[in-house]
Amino acid sequence: MPLVALYVKAEMDGVDKLVFPQEEVWKLDVKQSSSEEMREGVTLDPTNEEEVPNSKGTANFLIKWEGAKAPSTITMMTPSRKQPIKDLKDAVLGEYTGGGFQPVAVFDCRGAEPCRWYPLGVTIETPFGKFENVDLTNLGDEEWMEASETGECATISELKFEFRVVK
């Protein structure tokens, strides 16, 4: 059961934190673990449970690759005492508070793995308000900015992400 964590990093000024609601639908590009075959722009809904054929398990996302005998699965995972993740022992998933790369989500991947993330549905918390359902997809090239009525400014730029295998 390979666990893959999504790590995020961004330049933030006047922003307290970015929140990635765990129940939000995640848009990803995924590739087959054993080849370069890829599907772009698929959605993974953590609230959706699909039965895995010929198995007792369920998954949030199923895909059948050409030539594969069984479907590949990806499931959103929440660490717990019963299922701890040593690499993320003190991490707070679902939010980014600034600095270096921080994990925001974990996926249980079997036969498929995420290779690109589209940051949709992000909540941005600033000293002067909360902005929900923000699309930060183009932050590699652009900057997000918001200003308060009193002239306070909040900006986010250089959003970067990477997927890492965790244990």
Shape, please? elongated
Largest sheet: 6 strands, antiparallel
Biggest sheet strand order reads 7-8-10-1-15-14
Q: Supply the number of helical segments.
A: 0
Q: Which runs of at least 5 residues are low in confidence (pLDDT < 50)?
A: none
Structural class: mainly beta
- How helix-rich are the residues, as a percent range? under 10%
Question: Alpha-carbon distance between the termini?
Answer: 10 Å
Q: Output mean pLDDT.
A: 94
Beta-strand portion reads over 45%
Order of helices and strands: EEEEEEEEEEEEEEE
Q: Count the strands?
A: 15
Rg on CA atoms, Å: 17 Å
Structural commentary:
This protein has 167 residues and is mainly beta. The protein has no helices and 15 strands. The strands form four sheets. A six-stranded antiparallel sheet has the order 7-8-10-1-15-14, with no helix packed on it. Strands 9-2-12-13 form a four-stranded antiparallel sheet, with no helix packed on it. A hairpin with a 5-residue loop joins strand 14 and strand 15. The mean pLDDT is 94.
Set down the secondary structure blueprint:
Elements: E1 3-13, E2 17-19, E3 26-32, E4 38-44, E5 50-51, E6 58-59, E7 61-63, E8 72-77, E9 95-96, E10 102-110, E11 112-118, E12 122-126, E13 129-134, E14 144-147, E15 153-166
Antiparallel strand pairs: 1-10, 1-15, 2-9, 2-12, 3-4, 3-11, 5-6, 7-8, 8-10, 12-13, 14-15
List keywords for this structure.
single chain; 167 residues; mainly beta; six-stranded antiparallel sheet; four-stranded antiparallel sheet
